[in-house]
Amino acid sequence: MNSSLFDYELPPGLIARHPAPERSDSRMLVVNRAGSGIEHRRFFELPTFLHTGDVLVLNNSRVIPARLIGRRLPGGGIVEALLLKEREHLVWEAMVRPGKKMRIGDRIVFKPRVLEGEITGYLERGERLIRFDCAGDWHNVIESVGHVPLPPYIVKARRDAGEAKSSADPADTVEDRERYQTVYAQHEGSVAAPTAGLHFTTDMLARLEAMGVQCVFATLHVGPGTFKPVTEERIEDHVMHSEPYVITEEAAGRINQARAESRRIVAVGTTSVRILESCADEAGRVRSGTGETSLMIAPGYRFRCVDALITNFHLPRSTLLMLVCALAGRDAILGAYREAVHEEYRFYSYGDAMLIV
Q1: Which residues belong to CATH 3.40.1780.10 in the chain?
Q2: I need a labelling partner for 252 at 20 to 30 A (CA). Which of 53, 80, 206, 232 fits?
C-alpha cells in the first residue's frame, strides 16, 4: 500500500500551538462506522456516547522533562539533548543536536555544578549514550533543569509566531508542565504525551465511573518515533519504532471479563490500541505482562480487542493516521479530516478530539 494514500492538506494555522482553555472544552468530531455520518460535538459530551459496562482503556504513562539545553565543552556551542531511555542509573540514550560534532569524551554542561554529562558511546540510529554527573536526586534535578519535550511541530509553530526567543529556546511554558500531561499520568517514561487523554478531567472520569463505565489503566511509554512520518513509498517497508508497555493482571482481567460479556472496549489513544492489540490473542483475550511492541497497524489489519477509539487528529503519512484508517476505513477518515479542516478544528497534540464508534 502506497504511503501517499494517507496524505492530506492542512493549513498551518490549524496546528494547535496551545491547549484549549479547559481540557474538556475541546471540540470532538464523532465518526459512526455504522454509516450515520459525522457529528460535531464537544468533548464534555463524551458520556452521551458511552454505555454502562463500557471499558475505557487509558495509558497512564507520564511525560518526563526530557529536553535538556546545555553547552559543549570544549567550544561552548549550544547542545540540545532529548532523553530517550535509561540504560542504567545516570546513563541515558539520547538524541543530540548537533550530533555530528559530539564525540566520545565530549562534555556538556546543562547547569553548572548541578547537571553535566559526557558522551560515552554511539548508537546505531545516530543517538548517543550520555553518562550524567548529577548533584542531588536525579528526579528533582531533571524536574528543575529539563524542559517539556513538546513535539517539533508545536515548537516550530510557536517560533513562527514569535513566541520563542531563539532557535535554542525549547519554547515550553509553565502551562505546558501541567497541560502536556494527562490528569491520570502515573508512571514516568514518555517523551511525548498520549494526547487523546489530555481532554479528560478528574470530574469527567468520576462521572463516567458513576454511570458504570469502567476505567482501566495500562502503560506504554511513548517515544519520539511516534512523530516519524512514513517516508518509504510502500508502507510495508517502514521500520516501526518500538515502545515498552506494561499491562497488569487486574487490568487484563477486567478487559477479558468485559469481552466475555460482549461489552465494548474503548481505547483512549493509539497508544492504548497498540498495547491491547499487542497483548491480545486470536480470540481477543488480553495477556498481562511487560514487553516492547513494534506493532504497526494499517488498513487490512484485523482488530482483536478494540471496539471504539478516542483519538486526536494526526500528521499526514504517519503510522497513527494509518492505524485510525485501519479501524474506520481510509475513505471515511480522510473524509472526516477534510470536514475537520473545513470546520477549522485544531490539529495534533494540543488539538481537538475524534471519537470513532
Answers
A1: 3-63+177-356
A2: 206
